Structures are given as structure tokens and as C-alpha cells.
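Section 5: illustrative case.
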């Protein structure tokens, strides 16, 4: 079974770095939000939400972003150490 996890940011006074990193990498590649969205198979509005920090990409989308922009996941998501992963419910 393939499960995609959503991550939530711990509450902190410091804003997360990942929105700026996604935008910086996209601009460095010379792509519009629409072009990046096409490469990672999501709507343009999803890219915009990621860049605003409103939504954090699921793990699979984070990997696709890093691959598309020729960078590593830790470089793209430097706050990953301060993120919580929801615990899977035991059945």
C-alpha cells in the first residue's frame, strides 16, 4: 500500500524556509509556476500555495520538485528537521 504523508509545521515564531526555497529554485531554473506545475503534475494553484507557505507538499511531491529542479530534498526543505509527521493509526 502506497501512503502519502502530509506534514505539518510545528508552531514557531520563525517562518518556514521552504516557500522561499521553492520559489528561488523555480526562478533559478527560469520557469513560471505553470511550467513547474506541469513538470510535477499538479495545478499551478498548488505551486502558488506551496510558495506562499499555505500548504506543505506531500513527500512524493517534494521528491518530484527536487528532481525537477535538480536539487536535493534537504536543500529544498531545510525545515524538515522541525516538521512533525502524523502517526499512522493502528488498525
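Designed sequence:
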Amino acid at each position: 500500500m502506497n501512503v502519502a504523508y502530509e506534514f505539518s509545521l510545528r508552531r514557531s515564531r520563525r517562518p518556514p524556509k521552504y516557500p522561499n526555497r521553492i520559489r528561488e529554485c523555480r526562478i533559478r531554473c527560469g520557469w513560471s509556476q505553470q511550467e513547474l506545475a506541469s513538470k510535477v503534475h499538479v495545478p499551478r494553484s498548488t505551486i502558488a500555495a506551496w510558495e506562499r507557505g499555505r500548504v506543505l507538499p506531500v513527500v512524493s511531491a517534494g521528491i518530484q520538485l527536487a528532481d525537477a529542479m535538480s536539487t536535493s530534498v534537504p536543500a529544498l526543505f531545510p525545515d524538515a528537521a522541525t516538521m512533525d509527521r502524523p502517526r499512522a493509526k493502528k488498525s
